[in-house]
Automatic annotation (TrEMBL):
It comes from the Bacteria. InterPro entries: Ntn_hydrolases_N, UCP009120_prtse. It comes from Ferrovum myxofaciens. This is Proteasome-type protease.
Length: 261
């Protein structure tokens, strides 16, 4: 299993992914699930992947091969993000069909992707590509996309993320969402990759690769845990807690102790 996340704001986007691949309890490996394509001052793309590893690796290989051979379309020839996502979806569907034809063991070769990027002066976008080749944008109410093990990291996104959130805040929220997933699901694990993109920069300059023992990752997780405990302690009290702690209740208790003695 895996967990990948994209947050799309007014000022750019944030991407976050883990690196765990699991083909059984005794076959655990680490592979990057964030793949970037950059032509400075022209266009940038980042692709997050989840699903069958053979499919996702061959899709990335095909994207690079099409660039090398100057096949049309490719990521450099497409004129807008919709052409880009159509192209990636077509490659993904083709690769899945190739694997399915060769398969004799009923293996699931499906893969899901998130494509984020910007071409020239057009608006930056994030889109999720389903295994069947169709795709969607994030909603305005919840401007984020998730693939893989999504349920543990979703609550904080629902409560915090909106179009107006700053990129640094969105980045920290993405890492907290990932931390919650890592703590609750053993199939999602470090290293964690984070990319923060400023719109119109047409370059990827803010990227982090965080191992389990990374000081920043540990500090962020510990700070989040402390904050949760403090918030829990400051939640409104039950009615009976208030009455039990009132001066009248305390006096009644002391009077009862005197009588009983």
């Amino acid at each position: 299993m895996t967990y990948c996340l994209a947050i799309n704001t007014e000022t750019g986007f944030v991407l976050c992914s883990d690196s765990r691949t699991n083909a059984g309890f005794d076959n655990i490996s680490t592979y990057s699930k964030m793949h970037t394509f950059v032509w400075p001052n022209n266009r940038v793309f980042a692709l997050l992947s989840a699903g069958n590893l053979a499919t996702t690796q061959l899709v990335i290989k095909r994207l690079h091969a099409d660039l090398d051979s100057r096949a049309v379309p490719n990521l450099f020839s497409v004129e807008n993000m919709h052409e880009a996502v159509d192209y990636v979806a077509t490659v993904s569907s083709s690769v899945q069909n190739i694997h399915a034809v060769r398969d004799s063991g009923n293996v699931n070769f499906e893969a899901t992707f998130i494509l984020a990027g910007q071409i020239g002066t057009s608006r930056h976008e994030t889109l999720m590509i389903y295994p069947q080749g169709n795709y969607i944008h994030e909603s305005n109410e919840h401007p984020f996309l998730q693939i893989g093990e999504i349920k543990y990291g979703k609550p904080i996104l629902d409560r915090v993320i909106n179009r107006h959130i700053s990129l640094p805040e969105a980045g920290r929220c993405a890492l907290v969402s990932m931390n919650s997933t890592v703590r609750s699901n053993l199939t999602v694990a470090h290293p964690v990759e984070l990319l923060v993109y400023d719109k119109d920069s047409l370059s990827f300059t803010h990227q982090l690769y965080l191992g389990e023992d990374d000081p920043f990752a540990k500090e962020l997780a510990e700070s989040w845990n402390r904050g949760l405990l403090l918030t829990l302690q400051n939640l409104p009290k039950f009615v009976w807690e208030k009455s039990e702690n009132s001066p009248a209740a305390n006096n009644s208790t002391r009077s009862s102790q005197v009588i009983n003695s």
